[in-house]
């Protein structure tokens, strides 16, 4: 990079190249200062959690090309099992998070096993139906889940970490604790994408027939990516339970599944940052517009349609494409 | 997998293959042996059952009855990826590449199969020799200059060549090609036929071809299908002289 011959846009170019090379680092730098930019910290925590949820969903949707309409099941199971472990079993919150993630991955094995036999719209419908089964199962198990009222009392006591007193009721401390988990999860997703398996799922997205003819067991690969995605979304759910200190039943609702799709498309599917950008814009819009009108969904709907029609690559995807075009023009 | 090694060794064999699509009998009782390191073409007029036979040999469809034996192993009904791992590669009639990936990545993924499939934690850059072999294969099919281009923007002939590079990635013993020159310009066709002739010196290549003239020059054996039946089998000279073949095929001026 020759910085002496700086041209207009060169600074942006340097920034983009740095982001492309250190994608995890870039998210982290951004997220570190992020709560200071938000009107209040709870929104920042929400964006963190739903950003992770969308990233987990994107692994399946954007990178493997499988559109699930049942991912709320994984967010919800992660939340509920973490909550149940704390409320009913009185386990340590760290162990509870692990239980939430593992349970979600196990439900992923079950749902994935049934759903990957189908393709396209049928896959979407099967995941939707199985997601609804999970919803009703938790809705009916009132003794464990609180049914319609949700599961209350998911409290994390304050604790000491490396000599620092962390109080979970303080929004900023809570943000940074959750931030630490999201960091590890993003690093993990980045590893997956850079791995040989990451190349296989992209090949499957591009052409299943060819991937099989190359010698890849498409069904097994799909199942593995489905379970990985479920686990990551489960972690988002687990963190959400700690954040809200309740688990609302709507965590499992199919609207929650739809949100993952909207966030991915808004930010840019199949890009590393896209889902996070999408989650941030979605939740920020929700926050701002609800103060103006009850019908905030209408506004979000219009924004969503504008993007699908005119910027199908999403916000981040369009920026990336723009950057690539400017690189090619220079070359 | 034992058996005598040499030019007469049978690599793949179709045993009494019959296939029906509903009431339509697409193939009837076809038995053919294909020898190792041989270039062979399956020819026949439209609707003769060539593609069905190809799809059965390559494992895309399971025959209604009969079996496919590869190196002494019955492979009938095995999953597609298992065919590939045994050493049976194919190129499709309709171009099937990973369109949004670069030419290099297309071949690299194909090469990677022998090294890592479900490893999701180590970086793919750490795989020894995979990227290098992909470059070698690209060079071999004449695509080194478009290495970093997205596969979807390549010319039709280049995409077909890319498919060949991908099929060669796992160093297969058998390469099956369904109309490899379909839709190609005359120049591209010549280049592709030269490439096929070179490939056949190291492995068995079976082509399905509609245009008989193309394969007469380079194939050792021709198999003629007609209405789902095996009409004739033999060297180009024998086929050309066969009165049955002349009647159903050559008479059309093909």
Task: Summarize the SSE layout with pairings.
The complex is a heterodimer of chains A (331) and B (254).
Chain A: H1 10-21, H2 23-37, H3 41-61, H4 72-87, H5 93-115, H6 120-140, H7 142-145, E1 151-152, E2 159-161, E3 164-166, H8 171-194, H9 196-206, H10 208-213, H11 218-244, E4 246-247, H12 254-267, H13 274-290, H14 296-310, H15 314-330
Antiparallel strand pairs in A: 1-4, 2-3
Helix pairs in contact in A: 1-2, 2-3, 2-8, 3-8, 3-11, 3-12, 3-13, 4-5, 4-6, 4-11, 5-6, 5-11, 8-9, 8-11, 9-11, 12-13, 12-15, 13-14
Chain B: E1 10-21, E2 24-35, E3 39-43, H1 50-57, E4 65-70, E5 73-74, H2 80-86, E6 88-91, H3 103-112, H4 130-140, H5 156-168, E7 174-178, H6 186-199, E8 204-209, H7 212-216, E9 221-226, E10 229-234, H8 236-241, H9 243-248
Parallel strand pairs in B: 3-8, 3-9, 6-7, 7-8
Antiparallel strand pairs in B: 1-2, 1-4, 4-5, 9-10
Helix pairs in contact in B: 3-4, 3-5, 4-5
Please count the beta strands of chain A (DSSP E, at least 2 residues each): 4
Annotation, overall tally of beta strands of chain B: 10
| Rg measurement of chain B, Å | 19 Å
What best-fitting shape of chain B do the alpha-carbon axes yield?
A: globular
User: Which structural class should the secondary elements of chain A be placed in?
Assistant: mainly alpha
Strand order of the largest sheet of chain B: 6-7-8-3-9-10
Roughly what percent helix of chain B?
25-40%
Overall mean confidence score, pLDDT of chain B: 90
SS summary, helix count of chain B? 9
> What is the H/E string of chain A?
HHHHHHHEEEHHHHEHHHH
Radius of gyration of chain A, whole Å: 20 Å
List the secondary-structure elements of chain B in sequence, H or E: EEEHEEHEHHHEHEHEEHH
Number of helices of chain A: 15
Q: What is the spatial order of strands in the main beta sheet of chain A?
A: 1-4
Q: What composes the largest sheet of chain A?
A: 2 strands, antiparallel
Q: Low-confidence stretches of chain A at least 5 residues in length (pLDDT < 50)?
A: 1-6
